Amino acid sequence: MATERPKRGVPEGLWIRCTNCKTTVYKKEVVARHHVCPDCDHHFTMPAKDRVAQLLDEGTFEEWDTDLRPCDPLYFVDRLPYHQRLADEQKKTGMPDAAVTGKGFIRGRPVVLGITDFAFMAGSMGSVVGEKLTRAAERATELKLPLIFVSGSGGGARMQEGILSLMQMAKISAALGRYDSAGGLYVCILTNPTMGGVAASWALQGDITLAEPGAMVGFAGRRVITNTVRVELPENFQTSEFLLKHGFVDRIVHRKDLRTEVARIVDYCQIR
């Protein structure tokens, strides 16, 4: 008598649904394509560690300021106490906060790199994120190296830290101003999404501003603007394509081409 074998289900996490074309795609293929949909070319959000591996030469990244940890100066509580939210995010992502900074090489060119990761509280900018990006700009000034920031900050300035978060906009901008006065090359790469106080400060201050295809970039969201000013907005409003047309970004670059494009920019500006 044949024994009945238990049904084997599909393991979780093998497939994901593209938020753009709604196609179910094999996750490993998406990751292998630098988190880009194989069907419609949609650029998913990308973890900071994968972004480092994609942009920098293998084994060259020296991470800075790994000891910086956020705190809860205002004892802020919304659905959860802020300190609990931070602990949950750190456990989920394995990161102390939303920013990763350090020094590495892009096709043999030394650069300073800073990245905000959407996975940690939507990449929002609190005191630690601001401090790490400021220090990166200051060290790029000291080392006379090109500075590359990759923005994926859909959360903008972090409301749980109040004015301490908002002041990071001015602090990073001041550091970038000093870097510019010293003759440095600042390249900012806008990814989906880049919003709020981040878009209003360091994300749109680059000497060269690149953007990934289809990235949402702006200050307030589309619904907020529509409900405030009561006007019909263009269909592609706040996309990188819209910003390119209106002069806010210099070039739209597919993720697979970013390393080559940044290296070309560094060479063109004769900064090594």
From TrEMBL:
Cofactor: Zn(2+)
Main location: cytoplasm
Reactions accelerated catalytically: N(6)-carboxybiotinyl-L-lysyl-[protein] + acetyl-CoA = N(6)-biotinyl-L-lysyl-[protein] + malonyl-CoA
GO molecular function ontology, one term from the record: acetyl-CoA carboxylase activity
InterPro entries named in the record: AcCoA_carboxyl_beta, Acetyl_CoA_COase_Trfase_b_su, ClpP/crotonase-like_dom_sf, COA_CT_N, Znf-ACC
Ranges annotated as C4-type zinc finger: 18-40
Enzyme Commission number, as recorded: 2.1.3.15
Keywords: ATP-binding, Cytoplasm, Fatty acid biosynthesis, Fatty acid metabolism, Ligase, Lipid biosynthesis, Lipid metabolism, Metal-binding, Nucleotide-binding, Transferase, Zinc, Zinc-finger
Pathway: Lipid metabolism; malonyl-CoA biosynthesis; malonyl-CoA from acetyl-CoA: step 1/1
Signal peptide (residue range): none
Positions contributing to Zn(2+) binding: C18, C21, C37, C40
Membership in a protein family: Belongs to the AccD/PCCB family.
Oligomeric and partner information: Acetyl-CoA carboxylase is a heterohexamer composed of biotin carboxyl carrier protein (AccB), biotin carboxylase (AccC) and two subunits each of ACCase subunit alpha (AccA) and ACCase subunit beta (AccD).
Family annotation (HAMAP family): AcetylCoA_CT_beta (MF_01395)
PANTHER family the record matches: ACETYL-COENZYME A CARBOXYLASE CARBOXYL TRANSFERASE SUBUNIT BETA, CHLOROPLASTIC
Name this polypeptide is given: Acetyl-coenzyme A carboxylase carboxyl transferase subunit beta
Native source species: Gemmata palustris
Lineage: Bacteria, Pseudomonadati, Planctomycetota, Planctomycetia, Gemmatales
